Structure formats: C-alpha cells, structure tokens
Amino acid sequence: MRALEKFWHALDERFDLAPLVEFATHKEVPRHRHSWAYYFGGLTLFFFLVQITTGILLLLYYRPTSEAAFESVQFIVTRVPFGWLVRSVHSWSANLMILSAFAHMFSVYFMGSYAKPRELTWWSGFALLALAMGFGFSGYLLPWNELAFFATRIGTDMMSKVPFAGAWLLKFLRGGEEVTGATLTRFFGFHVAVLPMITAALLSLHLALIQRQGMHVPESLEKEAKARKPIRFVPNFMLREGAVWLLGLAALAALAAFFPWELGIKADPFASAPAGIHPEWYFLFMFETLKLIPAHVLGIEGELLGLGVFGLGGLVWFLVPVLDRGSRTGHRTRAFLVLGWFLLAYIVSFTLASLAGVFK
Amino acid sequence: MTDRILTATVVLSLAAVAAFAAPPTSAVGTPGKHAEDSCVGCHSKLEDSRLRAPAEAANSDVHHTQGVSCAGCHSGDPTSDDPAVAMDPKRGFVAKFTHKAIPEMCGSCHSNAAFMLRYSPNIPTDQLAQYRTSKHGQALATGDTNVAVCTSCHGAHGILPPADARSPVYPTRIVETCGHCHGNAALMSRYGIKGNEISEYKRSVHYAALVTKNDLSAPTCKSCHGAHGAMPPGISSVSNVCGTCHLSQRERFDQSPHKDAFAALQQPACESCHSNHAILHPQDSWIGMDDKQVCGSCHSTGDAGATAAARIASALGKASSADVTTLARVQRVERAGMLMDEASVKLEEAHQAFVMAQLEIHTTSVGRVEAQTKTVLGALAAADKLAAASETEIRYRRSGLFISLAVIALAMVLLILKIRAMER
Fold first, then answer.
1. DSSP secondary-structure letter at A171?
2. Mind listing the domains of chain A with CATH numbers?
3. pTM for this entry
4. What pLDDT does B20 receive?
5. Given an 8 Å threshold on Cβ–Cβ distance, is A246 in contact with B423?
6. Hey, is the C-beta of A34 within 8 angstroms of any chain B C-beta?
7. Which of A235, A243, A254 lies at the smallest CB-CB distance from B401?
8. A231 to chain B: nearest residue by CA?
9. A250 at the B interface (CB within 8 A)?
10. Alpha-carbon distance B265 to B362, whole Å?
11. What is the per-residue pLDDT for B1?
12. How many domains does chain B have?
C-alpha cells in the first residue's frame, strides 16, 4: 500500500495530477427520469473498444488481397482457436456500435443537448457517426465474399453520381475503374489505419468536451434534476456504466454463439450479381429510397437527386445547433422536434420494411 | 458417224449436268455481298402479299446475303427490268417448284463441293445424298408428296443459317419443326407412326435440358434420327445412337450379359428400360420385379437376374438412405454456423461414387455396384464423423457461453448490489 502511495506521489509530483482527481471526484451526473439516455454514449464507446481489441486479433491472421482475404477469414473461423468467436464478436459489435451510436444521437437530439454551448460536441459526434458508417462500409468488403463484393460495387457506383468529383471519387475509392483487389487493399488501409486515426482524435475531443462541459439537462427536466440528488461520477456512475457494459458484453456473447456471422461464398468478379444484393442494415433506408426514386425527376437523374437530398438532409442535421435558434436560449423550436421524430420514423420504418422484404 | 453422235451426246450431257449443277452465273454475285436483282425491286412493290412476301424475306435470306439472287433457284434473267424477259420460261424461269423437284434443285448447289467451297471450306455437301437414303427421300421417290423436303424444315424464302437462333432447324426450334408433321397423328397413321413422339419427347430429360437449361448439346430429333438422312434407328443400332453421348453406359452395357441376350431376343438395348422418346430421369426404384419396375419384363422371380436386381437395389437403397441422413446432419450443423467444407468434400465424393454405382448398374454386376456403394458409405461415414465433431464443438461453445453469461450476470448483480449499498 505504501509503495502504491509512493508511486502516486511520484507521479503527482511530476505531472500535477491532483487537480484531475479533484475534478473526477467532484464530477456529478444529473439524475432525472431520462438519465438512462446518458448511458448510450458510453455503450457506444464500449463496443468501439471491443472493435479495437477484436480487430487487432483478426489482424494477426487476415491477409488483405483478393486471392487470400476470403481464405484467411475462413482460416480464422475454422482453424484459429476461438477465431470464430473473435470474428463473430467483431461483426456483431460493429453493428451494435452503430445501433448504439444512433440511439445516442437521437437521445441527444431529443433532449436538445446539441444547443449552445455544446455545438462542437454535436459536430464531433456527427463526424464520429459518419466515421463509424465508414468503418462499416470499408469493413464489409474485407471478407471478400459475394454479397460484400457486389454491395461495394453498387455503393461505390453511387459515388460516381456526385457532381464534378464523381468520376474521381469512384476511382479513388476503387483504386481503378472496377472493384478489384486494389479496392480491397485500399479499403483495408482505410479500415485499419486512416479511419481509426481520425476516430481516435475526434473521440478524444468528443470525450474531453463532455468532461469539460458536463451532462446537459433538458429545460423540461431542470426542476426534477435540481430536486434530486445527482449521481457522483466516480465511482457511482462509473459502476452503473460498468453494469451497462456487462449487459452489452452479454448480448455480444449470446449473439456470437447463437447467430455466428456467416462468411458466405467467395466473391467472383466475373460472375453476375446474385439476387438480393443489399448493403449493411444502417444503409438500407438510403438504399431503398434511392431505388424508389424514378430514373428521372424533372429532367434530373433520380439517383443524383436522391443523393442531393440526402446530402442536404445531412447538412441540415449537422447544422441543427445553428439553425435551431431557439435552442440557444433553452427554448427549442418545435419544428426541429418534429423533424427529429420524422427522421427517426423514416429511418426505422424503411429499415424494418427493407429487412422484412417489403421492397422486393 | 456413230462415234460422232456418241461424242456429241456425252458432251451435251456433261454440259447439261454442269448447267444444272450450279446456278446461272448472272444469279451468283460475290460471296458476302448482298445480291442485287430486279426481282426484289419489283416484287416488293406488288400488292399481292403472296408475291410480295418472298421479296420481303430476301433481306434476311442466307442466299441473298451471300450474293445468290432469286434466279439462283428460279432462273430467268435477274438483270432485266422487263418482267416478260426476267421471268421468261425460255430462260429457264420456274415460278413454283413441284414438291419432288425441290431436293434436286437445292442439291444442284449444295451437292457441288467446288461451288460450296466459295462460302465455307467445311460446309457439308452430302445433304442430298443423305436425303435420298432417308425415309423422307425414299417415300418421295415413290411419288409420296406428303413427306418433308428441304423447304419443309428450312423454309422456302428467308432461309437462315442453322446456327441462327431464329432458324426452324436451330436446336431449340427443331422439335416444333419436326412436330409440324410428326405431331399430326392422322397424317402419321398413314405411315404406321403413332404421332405422339413429339409429346413423349417433351416429357423427357433431353427436352428439359434443352428448354430449361438452354443446353444446346441436348439431343433433339435429329441427334438420334439424323437430319437429312432421317431414319428410325434399327433395334441393333439403338445402343450406338445413345452411346454416342452416353459412352460410359454403353461401354458397361456391352460388357454385360444383357447385350447378347437382348440381341437374341431382337430387343432394343437402351430403349427396353429407358423408353425411346419419353426418356425420363432414371430412378433407382426402377430396379426390381414389381409391375412398375423394369426387370420383371424379362426376368422371373427367383432367377439369377431377379436375385442380382434385388441385391443391386438393396445396395443402392442403403447408400441413398445414408446419403439423405448424412446430408441432413451436415446441413443442420452448417445452419448452426459451422463451416463444413471438409464434410462437403466428403459428400461430393459420396455423390460421385453414387453416380458411378448407378453407372455400374448397366454391367448388371452386383460386385461392381457394391464396390461403389461401399465407397459411398465410406465417404458418408467420414462426413458424418465431421458433422458429429462439429456438433460437439457447438455444444462446447454453447456451454462456454452459458458459463460466460453466468459470470457476467453475477458480476452485474454484484455491481448493482455495490451501487445500492453505496447510494443507501
């Protein structure tokens, strides 16, 4: 015990850590009937940490070439001890991370937590969700199976519709005209180097801002929050968060064991696209909407129009802290609340309808 | 004087043959270049659709596209715009050929190897010779004008190359073409033919391969009966016809005691068990002595053949039943998320050996069939063992999961208790 205290003093003497400890021990989390929403961010972080851990383990065996990628994943799930578990957990955790991130984003939105002074937190969170989807898109191709190959071909093809930069963007993403081994190597680079680096930086900023500014309490819950005793961050909230993480871990273990992530069949670039090609579930609402838009609307190409609307919608969502002027004074504009519910209903209904095969 | 008359006769005969053996020079243009003549120009403007149709079909006609004009068949003068000159019988013009004249008219070019060489170095020139030997040709020679001639199958105008998918003799269309006559039971009854051959053929595996798999190599009428020399294959040659594709079956049949026995009984080889036109997918259940099985039509219960059939059926039955059980087990394990590649290889091995066992039926050798079914059972046992190992692995994983979940649940309970204690 003395040795530990000595070690702490040595560190404190050199790095002046006492104020940090002081901050942590005095930090509090407001308590009200919607406090549960505060756990989604942490849960997303937990799944991200699982992704890093399992991703590093997969890296030990994965080979990012069109000749060896599929076989290496096959080797992982059949020959490597617990490889099936690691790969399955990596795939399931990726999906749960996106789901948790969406839940986090909408809970933050509906509580109006994006308002001043937390604009930068909202923007960094928005960018982190986009990065998570980028992780999903790039990681989807890595096993080099048939479904992923053709979904990537369709996905990257949509990029070519972007005005002016479309052709360049397509080549940049594919590493050529077609989806080939060059695309796989490139996506691997994005997945394990570029995206993690940017994510690490943004995540640090996001977490630092939250610590600095504390948890936001919606205007309607302020009275309740004041009346109730707040939760101490250390150790109470951390322990509660720990319980939620354990719940996430249990869900992951159950999913990985009962619904192992399928590998499918190896991609054959010369084969014709099989029926039922679709992207990951979190892109389905966009995918199905683009399919529903007619080929030409008022002389504009349907896909281009769809991408334009999505781009514009994304921009509005990003700029909500600026556009919702009332939120700066704590009085949120009703229109933005309606917009949030509409968007949530649209994403959930289109995703579920697509999974149920309504659009087939 | 006699010599002179003889010489003159020979010269004139040769000239006549030479004249008949190829179309008039004015009717033949450059190969590959569309023919130009006055016939199409005039006929395409005629109001009578019967007379206009040949001109309209000329554009796609293989002869026209290769420079052979209408006069190639009809003679006359294709360079003249005057109908009286162009269609002058004195210039050899024939408006409509008699049924009997058609094969000889087509053969005047198609049997001329030197002439046909201009269009393709490998083009066959024996169609007329074959036709003369065919049932059609023989009947035509006796004056029967109901039988097929060249135009019955290839069409008269707008003739397309046989490799053109629109041609009536293209593999996917030839059955209907033959069926124009052979599907007509009333017409066929005159020749002692049932007239149900086309409908029977359409029930066959061959037709299924042709239309559902679009397998152009699947046999059609002409594959077994011949095209120009169409004939029903004789009893002794049926196995030769089937054997051109089914080599392995034929080879085994030839080694079997059935070969001599069928020959002695004047019974067709393959057809006796497989039928002729309605060749269905063979079933293992055909082997046996019951009414719906094939062996009982020659063998009697208790004889050596019946005993062998029973043993072969039993061996195949065991292998087939084991295959169903093992396949179901492997698929069940696969659905549970296990990769069963090695088991799939074993299953494939079993399937191949099973096909070999079915092939060996043609030898009627119990030993040879059993040798293959033994391989089938061996491969299936290996696949079953792999499936069992995977099932054990699944149980191990699930047990591990339950233990992990229990540990996680315990940790959660402890945490919640700790939090409650702290916040009390």
1. H
2. 2-264+271-355 (1.20.810.10)
3. 0.65
4. 47
5. no
6. no
7. A254
8. B423
9. yes
10. 18
11. 44
12. 1
